[in-house]
């Protein structure tokens, strides 16, 4: 199989997690056929998923980091095949905010989806993991209010995630959405902030985006989406 390095694949939309559609609708095994790198969540929003080198890990709110079996279902995930030849550069002593600005200042990428991979040493890493929910599911903002926070210093690991153009807010979180996994596979999660000591940054721009919908899920199919305010709630829950 030739790996398509130019296509981003997403199952589910972030906008439909907002009202609480947290049921897993695609297996991790199916997801991995579309990429070896990516981010996502689990049924009931039971943690933060990060896929590195084809290995799907779930960081849960109790701080545990576990490899997921391929039969586990996810409600929302974004993946791609990592391009070893993607453009890359080294950075030192840089905050997350400064890195984000540097990328967009040096590249005309505001209108495209691209993957960001940062591999190296982090002076500080600040992450969160949301707590798994049972039915009836609350809203995404309610879940985010109960997130567990994690901090690490001098952590070696990999940041994986995406930039989504403002125009596609609702499908994904506009701007950067990044997850982390350390090299010892003991710490990670959805990134709130970091400071790079020294790391290699790789950027992979996508020509295509496949948006896959859970058409066999009746809850999704019958949901009347209240689109107004969705983006405000995404900002509130994800930043
Ligand atoms: Zn996340």
UniProtKB/TrEMBL annotation:
Keyword Signal attributed: no
Molecular functions (GO terms): acetolactate decarboxylase activity
The keyword Lyase appears for this protein: yes
Listed pathway(s): Polyol metabolism; (R,R)-butane-2,3-diol biosynthesis; (R,R)-butane-2,3-diol from pyruvate: step 2/3
UniProt GO BP: acetoin biosynthetic process
A Pfam family hit: AAL_decarboxy
Catalytic activity: (2S)-2-acetolactate + H(+) = (R)-acetoin + CO2
UniProt cross-references to Gene3D superfamilies, sorted A to Z: Hypothetical protein, similar to alpha- acetolactate decarboxylase, domain 2
PANTHER family: ALPHA-ACETOLACTATE DECARBOXYLASE
Protein name (database record): Alpha-acetolactate decarboxylase
Originating species: Ligilactobacillus equi DPC 6820
